[in-house]
Design a protein that fits this description.
The protein is an alpha/beta fold. Helices cover 34% and strands 26% of the residues. A 7-stranded mixed sheet has the order 3-2-1-4-5-7-6, sandwiched between helices. The relative contact order is 0.16.
């Protein structure tokens, strides 16, 4: 059963439907991300592992969403085609040419992404990001032990192989960033750990 779910989640319609059943509109997460990014007025918002573009906001000056799934990017391009500040790119987030963005003031979204990357992959990603002018990085990621049987079931069904505790997420992030804020965010049947970071000076 889990394998069947994994396959259909590669298609935007099913991905969005199942995610909505589990997390609803994700409004608490969207508000958290926008609040912290907008406070720094970045020239560019970079959404790493953007999926179908749910965290695009028309108020951003410029937005680039990166995802390895071509179907997700095509869906996002069609959905947001009327917005000139919305850009979507098919690419591996570990090997994207971030250096081209080096002179920009950047805010980064990392939503539901950390638990899909190993420690080594996260270190590779953050090694690239620390070379940029990152004014804020906002993480939202699931935790392994939420309260409630349904919430625990949602974690068990998740396709991420690296679901970490809040403490472990922070431990990894502290190698590169200063932690500015943390907050548990409820989204339907899911609980996400929100973490706001700035690059170490």
């Amino acid at each position: 059963m889990k394998l069947d779910i994994l396959r259909i989640l590669d298609y935007p319609f099913w991905f969005n439907l199942i995610r909505y059943i589990i997390t609803g509109s994700q409004q608490s997460m969207k508000d958290y991300v926008y609040k912290w990014l907008s406070s720094e007025s970045p020239h560019l918002v970079l959404d790493i592992g953007c999926g179908t573009g749910d965290f695009f906001d028309k108020r951003y000056k410029e937005y680039i969403g990166i995802d390895i799934n071509q179907k997700f990017i095509s869906f996002a391009e069609k959905k947001y085609k009327k917005f000139k500040n919305a850009n979507f790119v098919v690419g591996d987030v570990l090997f994207y040419k971030y250096g081209n963005l080096r002179r920009r003031k950047i805010g980064i979204i990392l939503v539901s992404m950390m638990h899909h990357l190993s420690d080594e992959e996260l270190f590779l990603l953050f090694d690239n990001l620390k070379k940029l002018n990152v004014v804020s990085l906002v993480v939202c990621d699931i935790i392994p032990n939420p309260k409630g049987l349904l919430k625990k079931l949602m974690v068990a069904l998740d396709r991420g192989a690296y679901i970490r505790s809040e403490e472990r997420k922070i431990e990894i992030l502290k190698n590169y960033f200063e932690i500015v804020d943390t907050k548990m965010l409820k989204a339907g049947l899911a609980v996400q750990c929100g973490i706001v970071c700035r690059l170490k000076k």
